[in-house]
C-alpha cells in the first residue's frame, strides 16, 4: 500500500542533526539495571516521543516512537492510529518547558506489514527545532547485527508491571541482546523470531511492558552516541518479565534503505487521512 509523502529537505535534516548531533543527549543517561526498569534522568533520551490517541475526551499515550529528523518519527506499524505526537516529554502528566506537540501529517507503514515488517514512519505536521529536550537518535548502518549480550536500553511509558498502571515518568531498563540462534530456539520464540528482528531481555528480571510498543532499543556506540537498533514489536502475552520470552524488536538495520526511501522520495500516488 502506498501513501502520499511530502519530501523533506535533506539540507534541513542535516542541519538539524548538526545543531546538536544525533544520539547525543545534553543530559546523559544514568545507566543501571533495575527490576522492571527505573525512572530515566529527565531528557536523557531526547529522541523518545509519546504517540497519543483520543480517549474519553483527552489524548492518552498508546505507543512510543523515536525522532529521526525534524519531521520524521520511527514507530511500529501495529501502533498506527490518529496521533498527537508529544516530544521533549519526561512526565506525561506535567506541563514541561521544552515540550512540544505536533500532529501527524502522514503515516507510512511498511508495504509488507503483516505482523512481520512491523515498522512505520510518522511525518510531523511541522518540523521541530533541536534543543536540550529534543534531539534525534542516530540510525545504525545497514545490515548491522548486534552481538549476543550487547547492553542496550529500552525506554518508554509502558505499564510498570504486568497488568499494572502505566508510567507517568519515562522509564528505562537494561535489556541485553539475545542472539538470533538462541532467541529462535523452540523453547524461546522459535520461528516467530526472524533474522530481521532483535531479541533483548528474557532473563525473567527486566522487560518492556504494554505501552512501550513502537519505542526504541537504544544501544551506545564506542564514541558515546546512541543508535536506535530496534522498534518494540511484541513480547509475551503472559506478562512483562517472562523467562526465555525476551522483548522482540524490529531490527532497524534491516530497514535502512526503506527508511531513507520514505523520507527522501515524494510518492504522489495517494493520501492517507488521519
Automatic annotation (TrEMBL):
One of its GO terms (biological process) is proteolysis. Keywords: Disulfide bond, Hydrolase, Protease, Secreted, Serine protease, Signal, Zymogen. It is found in: Secreted. It comes from the Eukaryota. Pfam families: Trypsin. InterPro entries: Peptidase_S1_Elastase_sf, Peptidase_S1_PA, Peptidase_S1_PA_chymotrypsin, Peptidase_S1A, Trypsin_dom, TRYPSIN_HIS, TRYPSIN_SER. It catalyses: Preferential cleavage: Leu-|-Xaa, Met-|-Xaa and Phe-|-Xaa. Hydrolyzes elastin. Its EC number is 3.4.21.71. This is pancreatic elastase II.
